[in-house]
Amino acid sequence: MKTWFTCKVKYMKEDEQGRTKSVSETYLADALSFTEAEAKIYEEIGQRVMGEFQVTGIAKSRVTDVFEYPDADTFFNCKVVYMAADADSGKEKKISNLMMVTASDVKQAYERIRESLNNMLVTFTIPEVKESPVLEIFHHTAEQKVPEGFKPIAEVQGSQEDEDEEEDEEI
Asked: Does 171 or 10 have the greater pLDDT score?
């Protein structure tokens, strides 16, 4: 399951008249930890913003899933509610999830979240759809950068096994 972090970034931006003003923007990052989310934000925003910027806040988000469509860039928060049986007591329990979807307006967001969830086995309702302050989402990448002077463990273990085989052949 993905862990989403809401990250707030503050920096100086130049407007159309050439004046600089302080802006605060919200981003969503898929990361394994707060540290990774912060590193991802510094990496991504550092490429987009000229000058200094500051990460003013990182918090674990309640977002459970994100549905992105290529024809829209506005994010909407959608509250999805369904009933599920509690494993311990056997009683029905109301579950609320926050999901995000890209759309051009609230109506399209509602239609898209309904379409995205149409394969759910339980009956659900969407009591709330509202525009999100999130400007962009940064997804988790599986590739890991190996620091200079280090080797991946698989490489080290592989070369160790080769050395062991050579020693066995000598004996």
From this structure: 10
The rounded distance, in Å, linking the Cα atoms of 85 and 87 is 6
Q: Do 102 and 68 touch, CB atoms closer than 8 A?
A: yes
Q: Report whether 28 contacts 84 (CB < 8 A).
A: no
Q: What pLDDT band is residue 58 in, cutting at 50, 70 and 90?
A: very high
> Looking at this protein, which amino acid is placed at residue 17?
Q
Strand order in the sheet with 134-138: 53-60, 4-14, 20-30, 134-138
Give residue 136's Cα distance to chain centre.
9
23 and 11 Cβ atoms separated by less than 8 Å: yes
Q: What is the pTM of this model?
A: 0.75
Q: Token digits for 63?
A: 């977002």
Structure tokens at 22: 């302080």
Per-residue CA distances from 108 to 29, 73, 101, 113 (Å): 24, 12, 9, 9
Q: In Å, what is the CA distance from 162 to each residue of 4, 14, 82, 150, 171?
A: 41, 59, 55, 19, 15
% the chain with pLDDT above 70: 82
In angstroms, the CA 61 to CA 25 distance is 15
**Structural contact between residues 11 and 42, judged by C-beta atoms closer than 8 angstroms:** no
